[in-house]
Amino acid sequence: MKHLMLALLLGTTALPATAGEIWVTNEKDDTISVIDTDTLEVTRTIETGERPRGITFSKDYSVVYICASDSDTVQVMDPNTGEVLHNLPSGEDPEQFVLHPNDRHLYIANEDDAVTTVVDTETRQVIAQINVGIEPEGMAVSPDGAYAITTSETTNMAHWIDTESRKIVANTLVDARPRHAEFAAGGSELWVSAEIGGTVSIFDVESKAEKGKIKFEVKGVHPDRVQPVGFEFTEDEKTVFVALGPSNHVAVVNAETYEVEDYILVGRRVWHMDFNGDKSHLFTTNGVSGDVTVIDVAKRKPIKTIKVGRFPWGAAYRP
Amino acid sequence: MRRIFGALLAAVIAPATAYAQIDIPVIYLKQEQEQPPVLSNLDPIPEDRGLAGAQLGLSDNATTGGFMGHNYTLEIIDVPLDGDLQAAAQDALTRSPYIILDAPAASQLSVADLPEAQNAILFNGSAYDSDLRGDNCRANLLHTLPSNAMRADALMQFVLFKRWDDLVMVKGAHADDVTFADSLNASATKFGLKIDKTKDWIFDADMRRNAAQEVPLFTQELGDYDLLLLADELHDFGRYIAYNTWEPRPVAGSEGLVPVAWAPVVEQWGAAQLQSRFVDQSARDMTPRDYGAWAAMRAIGEAVTRTNSADPATLRDFILSDQFELAGFKGRPLSFRTWNGQLRQPIPLVTERALVAQAPLPGYLHQRTELDTLGIDEPESTCEAFK
Hints:
Number of helices of chain B: 9
Oligomer: heterodimer
Radius of gyration of chain A: 18 Å
Distance between the termini of chain A: 27 Å
CATH architecture of the largest domain in chain B: 3-Layer(aba) Sandwich
Number of strands of chain A: 28
CATH superfamily of chain A: YVTN repeat-like/Quinoprotein amine dehydrogenase
């Protein structure tokens, strides 16, 4: 049986180079569902530690990092075999993380501990722990690597961490329950979603002042239920897709004018997302319905729903 | 007795942006109350019920405050059974305009009516009485604990949703039982239902030994019904009713399926984090009154953070404005009703082991927010003080 599995695995990796995969963490199944971006089918289900949430690949895709929140560890996995190579010390309850452009330092939000932990993936040592607000979650790092951002859900702030000194150099207030952060416009803007506030705020990185705020309005859904969480930019950074949680919609936003151009109906409680290789398809994790919606990016239409595990949370692409 | 909790976290990181240095002292004023004896010895009332929630709220506030130069403190004043609450309140009001009250409704009114309290913001984190949000409302008294009317409406929405509309009730004799029973009756009327039969709990024997013999006969007289409502807010007899009824029917109200402000089984919407922070702090489960006091503390914190002010008039205006949003771990932002100062909030319907539903249930619509299908809505409000 084992040999057969291995043969199958080798078989999939031998597919043409265009074939990519979306890796989805299933928070309440302790597994990852691997979706083939061409066939749009689940090809593998891989066991992980307890309560997998944040997921990201190393630059060369040779390893995948997984926040196993309830195991209090970050797992380092060989994506070809699904074998856990080793665990990284992560601090308690790691929820979400970001890999520094140096491909070496992981900045991890420890949700239950009000701490951001910095781990060196080579020496496997914690190199810093930074006190942040309560329930840190959203993590981002600027393209030049100078800033790491942690957003804290109960403190309602974005904390700007200088990656040299590993100290907080600024705190900016955001709306209630910030969930996700991303740098944009070549690193000159920081975008932060606020779940309970129902907004996405845009900050000027230079001055750290708020320069815009996006509000959402989904027809037939009470504003209280429109709760922005994860978001992703298209390749040209002109468009951003924002998951709106229990409103079961993804908003399409013009990243230059900050105007909402469209809303796309997806599965229930849409959380995070990632694109396929050429960014023609977007894959959203829908926690409550336990599936992934595939969106045709050009047409802005959902084209398929893929059943995955219980409470899919994070999504990450690998070629 | 007085104790002061400093904001321990305040010194962690120096604020990088220039915010004004502000001190926000909050006082937790508790009137000790007579606890009537109950049949079971299983669930002692925690001594720090309510207070522990305020303490958690303090540390939540202190984290944000630490980044902004806002210094929160919590002072605890414990007035003994025969103590003078009004004098203690007068003394407290010389030090802070922010007071969280842990006292019965009548005592809260005696504090709210003090001349010294007229510009203060008092929070009711302990009394469910709908009257405090109605005829007896006060402009300086805000309510973070839901009213009995909100709890009863939550249950009645579920009753209608399940079509369990043939209702009967057993109610206790304590004043809290009576007011809860009144709210259940009023709410049944509101949703076009009727509680057909009501029996008073009159037993004075120890039910741990003979519930199995007595309760079937007692409930036989209720005839057939869909759901047995229990008004037993002291948790005296209600726990012995389930499974001992003549008809095989579920129970709800004070026992069975219970509408609450908070319960240990609430875990969605990030609530698991709040629960675990609370257990880490207090080594016990978080109760509804802990939630009420926590929400009061957080409401103050949220208002101070957003206004960068410690002036009570500024904070009150902000708290009652549509700018105010509290992330209360119930899946949607919480805000205050401008007509009676009640924090609008979802009401979980829980058993000991699970969240069964959360009101407002789907389908109960409202022109402003579905949360206003729970409790006293603006058109029916008899509160004058907020006009």
